[in-house]
Amino acid sequence: MTDIAISPEALLATVTEALGARARSVTLALGEVTAVVGAADYLEAARLLRDAPGCRFEQLLDLCGVDYADYREGEWEGDRFCVVSHLLSVSLNQRLRLKVFAPSEDLPVVDSVTPVWSAAAWFEREAFDLYGIVFEGHDDLRRLLTDYGFIGHPFRKDFPVSGHVEMRYDPEAKRVIYQPVTIEPREIIPRVIREDNYGGGLRH
């Protein structure tokens, strides 16, 4: 491993050249480089970022889903569901953020990058479970964190806080059962109490 990482500006140029037309954008902000690629180019872009001499991102550190619904108070006009990966080059001591947007909101699908980084397997299962993003080519895509009978995807912005079903033990049936949620939704408005001389009567 090299002890000295190249500058963010140099990494931006290297990634831009390696991805070529596959990159929708390569940007630098707060010292971090982010590459956005199209869904059709996602898997090939991942291979390039792993194998290209100036990139060599051998390690996938993290992969997660993002729901851009109501992002920036509704100003977002792009696709709703995004997959974000954080990559590390151990040999070149550099990092990269890789983003891809699913073309369809109704059925968000992108390629699995497990053929490139095997560490993606459980990360992609988590993103499928929480956001409903389908990873084409994943050989074991099933829920990871929620229960087998869970309905919906709890990290989506439109998922109800109380959920759709609740689980309880039924002593008569002598087993766990599922039933519609019985919790009444409510809004909690904090009550502000203002008192004279609050804080010991400090003067400003």
Q: Could you state the CATH homologous superfamily of the domain at 8-138?
A: NADH:ubiquinone oxidoreductase Nqo5 subunit
Instruction: Name the poorly predicted regions.
Output: none
C-alpha geometry = globular
- Count of separate DSSP helical elements: 3
What radius of gyration results from the CA coordinates? 23 Å
- Widest sheet: strand order? 1-2-5-4-3
Give the SSE order as H and E letters. HEEHEEEEHEEE
Approximately what portion of the residues adopt beta-strand conformation? 25-35%
State the CATH architecture of the domain at 8-138.
2-Layer Sandwich
Counting copies of identical and different chains, the oligomeric state is: single chain
Look at the helices and sheets and give the structural class: alpha/beta
Q: Give the averaged pLDDT, no decimals.
A: 89
CATH topology of the domain at 8-138: Beta Polymerase, domain 2
Taking the alpha carbons of the first and last residues, their distance comes to: 57 Å
Tell me the major beta sheet: 5 strands, mixed
> How many beta strands in the DSSP annotation?
9
Can you give the helix content as a percent range? 10-25%
Q: What CATH first level of the domain at 8-138 would be assigned? A: Alpha Beta
Structural description of this entry:
This protein is of the alpha/beta class and 204 residues long. It has a domain at 8-138: Beta Polymerase, domain 2 (2-Layer Sandwich). Helix content is 17%, strand content 28%. It has three helices and nine strands, in the order H-E-E-H-E-E-E-E-H-E-E-E. It has helices spanning 8-19, 42-51, 120-131; strands spanning 23-29, 32-37, 59-67, 81-89, 94-101, 109-111, 134-136, 165-170, 175-180. A five-stranded mixed β-sheet has the order 1-2-5-4-3. A two-stranded parallel sheet has the order 6-7. A two-stranded antiparallel sheet has the order 8-9. A hairpin with a 4-residue loop joins strand 8 and strand 9. The protein is globular, with a radius of gyration of 23 Å.
